[in-house]
Specification:
Shape: globular
Structural class: alpha+beta
Bound molecules: zinc ion
Helix content: 25-40%
CATH superfamily of the largest domain: Hsp33 domain
CATH topology of the largest domain: Hsp33 domain
Strand order of the largest sheet: 7-6-3-4-5-11
């Protein structure tokens, strides 16, 4: 298990890698509890927005856990519906954060309608994955259209069309803060290994179908039951074939914003365009709502007094 020094510990905020015994199927189980609550508490979004952001966060953590990278994995939707933007990012050490942009009136109107979440709340647009490993490293990006009823379906389309990788993902989230409940989200993903060792293709096909059928039998209640730890849940699902759990990575909420980073960003704008009437600048981090205020004398130093 990955030790996360200085980060909040919880029994549920983990990404767990597993393998079904004797088969070319690997899996990821991710659940978020307190870490998710911390992200959502900072925002106070309407329920449907919180729910979509929770799904985005847990999907991001799941996809990130399947990649080998050192840096930042970002999952982002951009679309023309009531929720125009969803962003979640996860660092390779397990820090996650996220936010949404939405039109409150359109969200309120959408809440009165039934229908699949992606067409109803996000509309037309795309889902993008980015891996940023620093200036000298490759920047990997995948993009797919939002052509699915749910985020999980959109991710399926991506894997089928872009990666040619058989993938099944189940996502659930419960974020009813108004009733005083704790937020929880979970995702289970199984993937068929591209270069399997199985000798018999028919056996491999059967094993894959069984893994997908088991995933499809999962219920929201099971996935979101914090009384079941990861091992218990995996055993319950895959005990007939046998399941081997690998290292779990702890996930936690942490924003990477800082006064220095904000100051650096400010320097890229003309001072006259960013100051208010009194010559001050106020910036609020979209991810964590931290507020950064810069007084005129500080801006003098930042921009150089001659540039005032
Ligand atoms: Zn922040």
């Amino acid at each position: 298990m990955t030790e996360t020094i200085g980060a909040p510990r919880s029994d549920i905020d983990f990404a767990q890698t597993f393998q079904i015994e004797g088969q070319d199927v690997r899996g990821r189980l991710v659940r978020l509890g307190p870490a998710l609550d911390q992200v959502l508490t900072a925002h106070g979004y309407p329920d449907v927005v919180s729910n979509m952001l929770a799904e985005t966060l847990v999907l991001a953590a799941t996809l990130a856990s399947a990649l080998k990278y050192e840096g930042i994995f970002t999952l982002q939707t951009q679309s023309d519906g009531p929720i125009s933007l969803l962003v979640a990012d996860v660092t390779s050490d397990g820090a996650l954060r996220g936010y949404a942009r939405f039109d409150a009136d359109r969200v309120a109107e959408a809440e009165t309608r039934n229908g699949a979440p992606v067409p109803r709340l996000l509309g037309q647009g795309h889902l993008a994955f980015t891996v940023d490993q620093g200036a000298d490293m490759d920047r990997y990006q995948g993009v797919t259209e939002l052509d699915g009823a749910t985020l999980a379906e959109c991710a399926h389309h991506y894997f089928r069309n872009s990666e040619q990788l058989d993938t099944a993902i189940y996502i659930a989230a419960r974020t009813r803060r108004a009733r005083g409940e704790k937020s929880v989200a979970g995702a289970l993903m199984v993937q068929r290994m591209p270069h399997g060792k199985s000798v018999d293709p028919t056996d491999a096909e059967d094993a894959w179908r069984r893994a997908v059928a088991i995933l499809a039998s999962l219920t929201d209640d099971e996935l979101l039951d914090s009384g079941l730890d990861h091992d218990q849940l995996l055993f319950r699902l895959y005990h007939e074939d046998g399941v081997r759990a690998h290292a779990a990575q702890a996930l936690f909420h942490r924003c990477r914003c800082s006064r220095d980073k904000v100051a650096n960003t400010l320097k890229s704008f003309p001072r006259a365009e960013i100051i208010d009437q009194d010559g001050h600048v106020g910036v609020v981090c979209e991810f964590c709502k931290s507020a950064y205020a810069f007084a005129p004398d500080e801006l003098d130093r930042l921009f150089g007094a001659t540039d005032a």
